[in-house]
Structures are given as structure tokens and as C-alpha cells.
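Session log. Operator J.P. requested a structure for one protein chain; no other inputs attached. Running the standard single-chain path with C-alpha cell output.
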Amino acid sequence: MGLSGGYPEPVERLVECFQRMPGIGRRTATRLAFHMLKAPVEESESLAHALHDVKGKVACCEMCWQLTDVQPCRICADSERDAGCILVVEQPRDLMSIEATGLHRGVYHVLTGRLDPLGGVGPDDITAAALLGRVNDPDLNARGVVVTEVILGLSPTLEGDTTAHYLAELLGQQGVHVTRLARGLPTGSSLEFATPAMLADALLGRTSRDD
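Structure written below.
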């Protein structure tokens, strides 16, 4: 078939592919498709190679669950980082937001989500067990270092607070020092959208989980 939806079939398929992306509507998807249609062949080939590499070479770090193309990730392998201090975040993008402040010199643990009972997300759907494993067994932590502090860097939302409370209860039984980011972060917002200054204040002003 030559045409589908008014455009040649290959163009329509590209529009539909872009439209499946989060936040991309039909109009934006069409604009992106025509950009690629007019772009040099090298640009489209570069995009195709990048997509292929993302699917083929990127995975979760075997220790912290951050996205990486090497095992363990570069942060976990960095001898200048304090592997005894783990900052727990919900998603890789939260990790990158905190890294941008340049203030956290420890390592991370990415939960890959947060508890949401109404949405069907329970403890088995996040990497809480892997976090406990790192706390209990230094061989499972970066460079075999004993964990002395866990910072709960979760978004100040209902789900984030529920997850933080759950983790604090588990970690409290292991004898590790548990702290949380200060409430300089607006309640109900996502860590992803916090500014570097807000994150810096929250990190520097972190308090004991029991405060």
C-alpha cells in the first residue's frame, strides 16, 4: 500500500513510532518525522545506531541499578567515592539530578520505582531487597565496602514518603544510620523537577530518619 493516513506508508509508520513516546502528540510526531525525512542520511543513520546501542549495550548496574554500559557502573567503580554512604533514589533521572549538584560523593541505589499500593506496586516491584543485600553483605556493595549510612532521597510525595517509611523500617533493623533529605523540597513534587539549589539544600540539610 502506498498511502496511510495521507502520508506514504514509511512516513506514517515513523509518525506512529514517535507518537508512542511519552508527551508526543500527533502534531509533534509529524514534525519530527518530517525533520528526519529532510535531514541528511548521516543524521538518520546516527539516530538508528544510537537507538540500537541503547537497546543492545545499556543495562542496569549489577550493584546500584543505575543505567550503565559497563559493569559495575562508573560511579560504583570510582575509588574516590565513599561507597559506605548510599543515597537511595527512585529513578536514574533522579540520580543524575543529584549528581549535577556535585555535592554527593558517596554512591547510589536506584529503586526503579516507588511503592504505590493503589497502583499495584509492592515491595517486590522495587529493588529494596538488593539494597538490603548491600547493607548486610559488603561483598554486594561497591568495592566491598561496609555501608555506614543510607540517605533516603525520595520525592516528597505520598508514594515517596510511603516508600521512605518502609525502607527506614527495614534498614533500622540492620543497625545502619538512616537519614533523609531535608524538606527544602516542595511537598508533593517530584525530585526530577527540583532545581540544583533546592537539591543542594536538601542534601546538605539531611536529617536523621527519626527526626
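Operator note: The chain has a mean pLDDT of 89.
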